[in-house]
Design brief:
With 93 residues, the chain is an alpha+beta fold. It is built from one helix and eight strands, in the order αββββββββ.
Length: 93
């Protein structure tokens, strides 16, 4: 029962974070992100959110660019340790 509650809570938190963070915001990760042993993203560096994708219910991701490989990388909200909201752009006159 507690496992189901914990996973439901994690899903709700991820959903909240995905809606709270906007394109242009900076995110930092809980841990390094690797793919087959290749470091893609480092936990000690902020990454700018380039896009947000809602791939399926419960499967939302942020898109950032790796400073190591240059590739675009999907980051799931549960991997986000912190974020900084970018200031709203000034209205064009």
């Amino acid at each position: 029962m507690h496992e189901m509650e914990a996973s439901s809570e994690m899903l709700l938190e991820s959903h909240f974070i995905w809606h709270e963070i906007r394109v242009g915001d900076l995110i930092t990760l809980e841990a390094n992100l690797e793919d087959d042993g290749l470091l893609l993203l480092s936990h000690d560096r902020p990454y700018q959110v380039l896009a947000k994708l809602d791939l399926a219910p419960g499967n939302q991701v942020f898109v950032v660019q790796s400073d190591i490989t240059g590739d675009l990388v999907y980051v799931h909200p549960f991997l986000v340790a912190s974020y900084d909201n970018s200031p709203d752009p000034s209205p064009v006159m």
